[in-house]
Amino acid sequence: MSAGRVAALTAAAAVAAALAVSGLPQSASSAAVFQPTGGPLPSIEALKSEYRHCERVSSQRRLSMHGMAFCGAVSDQLLKREFAGDLDLLLVWSRGERQASATGIER
């Protein structure tokens, strides 16, 4: 198994473990984040949805340690898988999402 695949599976396992104990609601699309048999990683849309949820929750209250671990794992996976590790691109997307949400634009 390649080092990249091991890293992806490790991150997915961290997301799954944190999700199970985070207390954050699970959307149906992200409930089965990781299968020990090497099942699918969450979709990009599921990661984006969870990222937006993490931003909303963390702007309203402190996250638990488990919530922080979960949100960190979601952010890490989204950064790597959708934005090729470019934090600036993730931040531009995130700001656009917040602005759309504030103006009531459905994305």
Compact summary:
With 107 residues, this protein is mainly alpha-helical. Helices cover 66% and strands 0% of the residues. The protein has 4 helices and no strands.
Note down, in words, how this protein is organized.
The protein has 107 residues and is mostly helical. It has one domain (3-102). It contains four helices and no strands. Helix 2 packs across helix 3 (65-83). It is globular and about 40 Å long. The N and C termini lie far apart (37 Å).
Give a topology summary.
Elements: H1 3-21, H2 44-60, H3 65-83, H4 87-102
Helix pairs in contact: 1-3, 2-3
Overall pLDDT level: 76
The total tally of domains equals 1
- Which class do the helix and strand fractions yield? mainly alpha
What is the string of helix and strand elements? HHHH
Oligomer: single chain
Number of helices: 4
The fraction of residues assigned to DSSP E strands is under 5%
Distance between the termini: 37 Å
Q: What is the makeup of the main sheet?
A: none
Radius of gyration: 14 Å
Helix percent reads 55-70%
- In total, how many beta strands? 0
Index terms:
globular, mainly alpha, 4 helices, 107 residues, single chain
